[in-house]
Design a protein that fits this description.
- The chain starts with a helix and ends in a 27-residue tail after the last helix.
- The chain has three domains: 1-62 and 76-130; 164-345 and 496-504, no CATH class; 362-476, no CATH class.
- It contains 22 helices and no strands.
- Helix content is 70%, strand content 0%.
- By secondary structure, it is mainly alpha-helical.
């Protein structure tokens, strides 16, 4: 093995090893902030430095190809450009959130347990990013779930935090069963458990019925882990956990689904049924969560619903085969959500400023003309910067997604100067977003698009329906009071799932929490999650 490959494997494995060391050491530390966080920050800083070096080493090293018939341990590990960039992103966010955690939890009991679980999540994520074998993927994903449960239950006296962890545990066990089924079907068909062997088999023989069934099981497992409708409730109720946990979960853990879908792109390319499932779940989640998000009052809960909608949109991108845009979306969403959760304390001041300025609905002409104007801007930018494999229907989807930037508030409708300023600013944002999305095709992420043209018009129609609904709520808010109430309640989907989950797998609450534990038939009111 060349020296550069040795250095590359060391850089790839070092963050996981350092975070595993932190998890093993910190759990037995005394309950003191300095004794816990000082060594954690040192190990995290070293892991971050190594993770940042990894993409540079990968770019300068000779091509590294996994050998499907290699029985050595290197066949279980795949160091790809996407994995290298994701490792750097995960460790950067983990280090920043860890520093924030030390200040946020200052004086709180149980900090060693929190730090050990936090390090365990990071270590498991690093292993998952490098996994090149079904067994390693299954173990790493299970490790993420076990460590994350300890973080969700950090405040053990909060029944809704424990309810969220319990609901997530049910979803995780079902996802594990589906992932095991996917692995078993693929392993039996290919004759090996490495992903390299899977790709070689697909390239040589295409997708047989067992492999298509494996793809469907894999997609369902990812949908469950991503907290899409109808099992999204635990992601909303996780707001009962400390704010750093919310930042870690929303900025990193739920995004793993998008990464895995990109890794299994060759399998999805030959499994239309699996791709239709992704399109259906992604579009439905985006549609429903997009409405609910606009009705919420609590800043953190609104951000949680925003994450559900964004995950639905990312899954939709992967189902449509737009993996390069999904990779850019994943990176941008991670950075944005980490910042917004960690700066949530300043949201009160921003909200007061918005109230002082007044809230105004959009003017009707702008609601009607915004999609066409947005589409013109998108098409002009695409003409200047060719998008390669960007299909025509995705231009329409993006135009609808960015059209609200051109909505003109009613208060500004009679002031030409403010209207033109608003339009110029919105147009500049749309042009900038489109240019960034277009240039994403040239980023060295190691992923390639495989557009699913049959489902493209369906996605466009779904986004058009979403836009019409949002525009109707803006233009005639009083005529849709019932719809607003249903949206505020999340369409009561989580209430049905909560009752079902507690009946199928009743929770065993501690004696001192029995008086506050949710009853199996109790409906979890939206207001309870916004305290």
């Amino acid at each position: 093995m060349p020296v550069t490959h040795v250095v590359l494997f060391v850089c790839a494995l070092a963050p996981a090893a350092l975070m595993s060391t932190a998890a093993a050491l910190l759990g037995s530390r005394p309950d003191d902030s300095r004794a816990v966080w000082k060594p954690f920050h040192r190990l995290a800083a070293i892991a971050l430095l190594v993770a940042l070096i990894q993409p540079v080493v990968l770019a300068t090293a000779p091509p590294l190809a996994a050998n499907a018939h290699d029985g050595a341990w290197t066949a279980w590990i795949e160091v790809t450009p996407l994995a290298a960039w994701m490792a750097a992103l995960v460790q950067l966010l983990g280090t920043v959130i860890a520093v924030f955690s030390g200040r946020y939890l200052h004086g709180e009991p149980g900090q060693p347990r929190y730090a050990a679980a936090f390090a365990g999540v990071l270590a498991s994520v690093h292993v998952l990013l490098l996994s090149g074998h079904w067994l390693l993927l299954i173990a790493a994903w299970a490790g993420v779930g076990v460590s994350l449960r300890d973080l969700l239950c950090f405040y053990r006296d909060r029944p809704f935090a424990r309810l969220a962890a319990h609901k997530k545990q049910i979803v995780d066990r079902l996802a594990d069963l589906l992932l095991l089924s996917a692995a078993g079907l693929a392993w039996a068909e290919v004759g090996g458990g490495t992903f390299a062997a899977l790709r070689e088999h697909i390239a040589a023989h295409g997708a047989s019925t067992p492999l298509q069934a494996s793809a469907v099981c894999l997609v369902l497992a990812i949908v469950l882990r991503t907290a899409l409708f109808p099992v999204h409730g635990w992601l909303i109720q996780v707001m009962e956990a400390p704010t750093p946990v919310s930042a870690l979960l929303h900025a990193g853990v739920v995004n793993l689904a998008g990464y895995l879908l990109m890794r299994f792109a060759p399998l999805l390319a030959v499994a239309p049924a699996a791709r239709w499932l992704l399109v259906g779940f992604g579009l439905g989640t985006t549609f429903l969560a997009g409405f609910v998000m606009l009705t919420r009052i609590s800043i953190k809960v609104r951000l949680a619903w925003s994450t559900v909608a964004q995950m639905g949109f990312m899954v939709l991108e992967c189902g449509l085969g737009l993996y390069q845009l999904a990779a850019l979306h994943l990176i941008g969403h991670s950075l944005y959500k980490a910042h917004t959760f960690l700066s949530a304390s300043s949201a009160v001041q921003n909200t007061r400023l918005q109230i002082m300025r007044g809230r105004h609905n959009a003017a009707l002409p702008s609601l009607v003309l915004a999609p066409a104007a947005s589409l013109i801007v998108v098409m002009l930018v695409q003409t200047l910067v060719p998008a390669g494999s960007w299909p025509w229907w995705w231009s329409g989807v993006l135009a609808l997604a960015w059209a609200p930037l051109l909505w003109i508030p009613v208060a500004e409708n009679g002031e030409p100067a403010r209207v033109w300023t608003h339009l110029c600013f919105g147009t500049a944002l749309i042009a900038g977003y489109t240019a960034v999305a277009t240039l994403a095709h040239h980023l060295p992420l190691g992923v390639a698009d495989a557009p699913f043209h049959v489902a493209g018009p369906v996605a466009l129609a779904g986004m058009a329906l979403l836009y019409v609904g949002l525009a109707a709520l803006q233009g005639c808010p009083h005529r849709f009071a019932t719809w607003r109430r249903w949206s505020y309640a999340g369409f009561y989907v989580d209430e049905f799932y909560t009752r079902f989950a507690l009946r199928v797998w009743p929770a065993r609450w501690a004696p001192h929490d029995a008086a506050h534990a949710p009853r199996p038939g109790a409906v979890t009111s939206p207001g309870l999650t916004e305290r």
